[in-house]
Amino acid sequence: MIQKTIMLILDSHQSSAKMSIPTKETPTNSDVSPWLASLVYPLGRYFVLPFYFKSLEVIGQEHLPKQGPVILAPTHRSRWDALIVPFATGRHVTGRDLRFMVTVDEMKGLQGWFIRHLGGFAVNQKHPTIATLRYGLELLHQGEMLVIFPEGNIFQDHQVHPLKPGLARLALQAETSYHNLGIKIVPMSLHYDPIIPHQGARVQVRIGSPLSVLDYSQGSIKKNAQSLMQDLEFALHQIDQQ
């Protein structure tokens, strides 16, 4: 659903640019609260995850860029992914905080307050706005590390599902809008044993070599996005089958 929304926003953005129609939008905001992150991340890393899971193994952390704009592209297997991905790639590993793109429904109430102040920002699937696209582009321009699940939904199995094109379109839009950003897309495979995790389950995270978006930035964005997603899907299959 997130991927479909990105596509709608991008198409809307391109149409508006061609027609020069001004739009009035609600700003998209999020931040990483220093005090909240300093409390929540250690709590999850040293207490919640070790208590719930029997083992957590991470392979390939040497592939994580320590600087520059990055899009992490994990397979999506469980709601636990929102804690596992920061455990494997976040501030205790790279010194960087993650920025999650989430649905607007997840931003309600107390949960939404936590997500917003831990770097998450909302995408409204029913009424997508150009403000969301601009915010994502600006985060990449600032050299942030974004998390976008390219399969689009949670799949509780052990296979890579067809990827949605929204991630590639967003990355290419950023790379061409801000010349030579050097965006990297990092494939990640998450494995739970059993596949529907319960207390005592095992988790393995496999991180592959990053793809350089600059290599796909010449010519048609649509065709380049297809090539980029094909290569990302191939990379996910490779690390998923290791």
Index terms:
242 residues; eight-stranded mixed beta sheet; alpha/beta; 8 strands; Glycerol-3-phosphate (1)-acyltransferase; Plipid/glycerol_acylTrfase
Account of the 3D structure:
This protein starts with a helix and ends with a helix. The protein is of the alpha/beta class and 242 residues long. The protein has helices spanning 2-19, 34-52, 81-89, 109-116, 130-141, 166-177, 221-240, and strands at residues 53-59, 70-74, 98-103, 121-123, 145-147, 184-193, 201-207, 211-212. It has one domain: 3-Layer(aba) Sandwich (Glycerol-3-phosphate (1)-acyltransferase), CATH 3.40.1130. The longest helix is centred in the C-terminal third of the chain and has 20 residues, at 221-240. The radius of gyration is 17 Å and the shape is globular. One of its GO terms (biological process) is phosphatidic acid biosynthetic process.
Short description:
This protein is an alpha/beta fold. The chain has 7 helices and 8 strands, in the order H-H-E-E-H-E-H-E-H-E-H-E-E-E-H. Helix 2 (34-52) packs across helix 3 (81-89) and helix 6 crosses helix 7.
CATH overall fold name: Glycerol-3-phosphate (1)-acyltransferase
Strand content: 15-25%
CATH architecture: 3-Layer(aba) Sandwich
Structural class: alpha/beta
Helix content: 40-55%
Topology as H/E string? HHEEHEHEHEHEEEH
Query: Largest sheet at a glance?
Result: 8 strands, mixed
Q: Taking all residues together, what is the mean pLDDT?
A: 85
Number of helices: 7
- Structural domain count: 1
Q: Terminal Cα separation, in Å?
A: 28 Å
